[in-house]
Each structure stands twice: as structure tokens, then as C-alpha cells.
Amino acid sequence: MRVVIAEDAALIRAGLTHILTHFGHRVTEVGDAPALLAAVDAEPPDAVITDVRMPPGFRDEGLRAALQLRERHPGLPILVLSQYVEHTYAAELVESGTAVGYLLKERVGDVTEFLDALDRVRGGGTVIDPDVIRKLLARRRVQTPLGRLTDRERQVLSLIAEGRSNSAVARRLEVSEAAIAKHVNSILTKLDLPPDADDHRRVLAVLAYLRS
């Protein structure tokens, strides 16, 4: 298997190369995102291993390069190996299809585990560290309008979705109807549902809840 390694830290890059060549793989090393793009375009490999933060900006160059490569070479197996979870592009890469991996460096326990992950990605599988999944899901919840709601507001909205009136919700939660009305107003505001004569805001709020 021919692998392109994109890693700016020389010691880590050398270590990965030593491991892969020891097990019979051919390796091309690069140290920045432009070199990664050039190396893959020149001779598409069987798999790419890339860090997230690399020169020239040390931000998300590695992930953006990976997404560009997936567009140019559909299905190219890519294993991200980093100590960072870059939310925006990580989610886009994970959702781009099969043959994708995202592992955190500090959580790769041994060589066998790493090689197994690379083999699975090369074979069209998806290998995502559980911590990466948790962080991506947490970020997504915060970014959606429903992620702005408090636990109590979610509880109120779930009862409204069952068809209950404010008074029925108040009885169920054993609070005053005024308190429920306050929660409902807060929910409608957080869901960006301003007063509109043409729309029933409670219905729209319930639809947003059900779609989630």
C-alpha cells in the first residue's frame, strides 16, 4: 500500500514512516498542505494520513486539503491523525462518505490499533474516535436553534408537541400557568419565531422540535 503522510512535526512524521515501511508499505512524506495536494495529484496513493494544523497558517490547512482531495479524487481514503478536533471541516469530512478516519494522537494506544484503523479506512470503512464524535455532536446541538433551549424549555416544548395547552403543561409540571407562558415566549424567541399573523408560532415550534 502506498501512503502519503502530511505532518509538519518531523519526529512524528519520521515515526509514522518507520512504522509503515516496517510493515511493507511505501510512504511519501510531506510537511505542509500545498505539498500534500501536489503529491496526491501527481500520483494518487492508496491512502492519506494527515494532521489538521499545518503550514502555512497552522489552523485547519490539513483538513481543508483533505476535503479538496476528496473532491478531486472521490473515495480517496483519508485518515486524520491529530490532537485537535476542528469542528466545521471535520464534520464535513466525516459526512463526505466512506473511507474516512479521524483519530486523536493521544488516544492511539498502540501500533496494531493504528494499523488496523488505517486498513479499515483503506478498505472503505469509517473509523472515528468516540471523543471526536461527542465533540462534533455537542457542537451541532449548540449551533441549532433547539440547542439554545434550556432543559426546562425542552420539556415544555415536548409537552406542547403532545398537544397540551399551557394550563395542561402547568398542571403536568406543577408550576403556574404564568411560568409556562414565560417559557413559551422564551422558546419562540430562541427559535427565531417572531409574531406573525400568517403563521401559528406554536405549530412551527412543534415542527422544529419534531424535525430534530
From TrEMBL:
GO molecular function terms listed in the Swiss-Prot or TrEMBL record: DNA binding
Domain of life: Bacteria
Domain annotation HTH luxR-type: ranges: 142-212
SMART domains: HTH_LUXR (SM00421), REC (SM00448)
Residue(s) carrying 4-aspartylphosphate: D51
Ranges for domain Response regulatory: 2-120
BP terms from Gene Ontology: phosphorelay signal transduction system; regulation of DNA-templated transcription
Keywords on record: DNA-binding, Phosphoprotein, Transcription, Transcription regulation
InterPro entries, alphabetized: CheY-like_superfamily, NreC/VraR/RcsB-like_REC, Sig_transdc_resp-reg_C-effctor, Sig_transdc_resp-reg_receiver, Tscrpt_reg_LuxR_C, WalR-like
Protein name in the entry: DNA-binding response regulator
Species of the source: Phytohabitans houttuyneae
